[in-house]
Every structure is written in structure tokens, then in C-alpha cells.
Amino acid sequence: MPGSADSARTAVRPRLGFGLRGPRTPRHVLSVEQLDALALPVGDDGVVAGVDVEDRPAVIGLHHPAPHDVVLIGGLWTAQVLALRAAGTGARVAVETGRPQVWTNLARAAGGDQQCMTLHDVGRVPPLGATAVSPVVVIRDCGMKPPRGRVSSGPWQSVLTLLPYLSPVAPRLLRGASLTGIQQVSPEEARQVGRILSLSRQEVEALSTLADGVTLWCTGRDRRFVLTRPTDAETGLLGVARRLD
After folding, report:
1. CA-angle at 77, arms to 164 and 157, nearest 5°
2. How far apart are CA 242 and CA 150, in angstroms?
3. Long-range CB contacts for residues 165-170, cutoff 8 Å, separation at least 24
4. Which of 22, 63, 188, 237 could form a disulfide with 135 if both were Cys (CB 3.0 to 4.6 A apart)?
5. Burial (Cβ within 10 Å: 0-12, 13-18, ≥19) of residue 205
6. pLDDT tens digit string along 114-172?
7. pTM for this one?
8. Are 73 and 169 in contact (CB under 8 A)?
9. Which residues contact 66 (CB under 8 A, 6 or more apart)?
């Protein structure tokens, strides 16, 4: 048939710069109501602090592009679990402490051949050069009245200050913290914390009866009771959960 060969060549001729025309199929379109079906079960980015009252993983964010201060009024055990888990996320952990003997074994176990957890005397933490690809968590274990040190929070460098109890410096630290963790305290301390953090009456009453390993984590908008469940490796290294050192 005249012109049939030319027509066939024209039909398969590639479009310059675009390649061959692909098959014609209907567009993949979802209604607004169907979008929820595409949700992925991915939690927040951070360190798993434990499980909440509904037995769901509770994640606290420690790596931020802006300064991030955390205050934990509680026991050494919880601070050490968080330090170990932070190191497990790839962060460098610097511990500022006046009792290095209680941190030495943990630092060795966390790092192995790598120095991902380092110990420093109080007031002697050097510049750590935190970046987005190498975040830093500084843990200040400096007693009831931690002095103002050279280290401070900054981009990708968070600071967690551990206080055994509600000390005279606690109100100032609590008001400036982005995240606060409260473990079992006395009823009077619970009332004082409640005033500072604007806790409900039920939350205040619960603070003096919390079990070992339970922490009330607070941000400006959120309150969550969290139970820290240690892994077998953490129990072997740190022992069972305890509020008192």
C-alpha cells in the first residue's frame, strides 16, 4: 500500500530528547480520604527512652539544629542508659563529671575501640565541634549545684544536666530547658516542680509515687510518663533500674 512503510517509520520515530513514547496508562490518583493508607509506621528521630502508658516506644529527640537543653531530676542509672543509647545512634557523648569512677566502665563498653564516649573533669570539657553528621550529647553529672561551665548547648550539641534532687539551681535550669525529665521526688519537691512546669494535680501527685525506671518527660506542650526497660546488655552493664545511686 503506497506510503505504508513511511507511515510505519513515522510511528516508531523517537522524539528528540525524550526517547520512545511509553505505554498509555491511566494516571495514579488517590482521593484525599485514601491518603492515610500511604502512611508509614516511622517514629520520631531520637533516642528510645522507654515505653509510654500504652506500651508504645517513647522517643526523645536529642539532635537539633538549634540549642537544646535537657534536665533530668533523677538517678544515675537512667542518665547512663540514655548516654549509652545516644552513643548507639552515632552521637559522640561527652560526660562532665566529678565521679569518673562510676562512668569508666560504661565509656569503655560504649566505645570499644572507638572513643564515642569521653570523660572530662568538671569545667574541663573542650570544644567538641558538633555538626549535623557528627552530633554531640554532653551529660553534666556535677552534683546538686552544677557550676556554670564552659560547655553549652548549640547547633547539633545538646546538654543533659543530671540533678539527683531538686536543688537551689533547679528552678533556673528547669525554666530554660527544652525537655525535662522528673523521676520520683518528695511531695514537697513535686509541688514545686508542678508550679514551675504547670503540671496537673494528678501529675504532681504521681511524682512522689513513681516506680524505679519511670520518668515524667515534659516539653512546653507535652507530658508523658515513660518506663525505661533495659536490654539484657544494659542490665548486665548497669544493673536493674534504680532511682537512688
Report:
1. 80
2. 31
3. 165/73, 165/189, 166/73, 166/192, 166/193, 168/144, 169/144, 169/145, 170/71, 170/73
4. 63
5. middle
6. 789 999 999 999 999 999 999 999 999 999 999 887 789 999 999 999 999 999 999 99
7. 0.81
8. no
9. 155
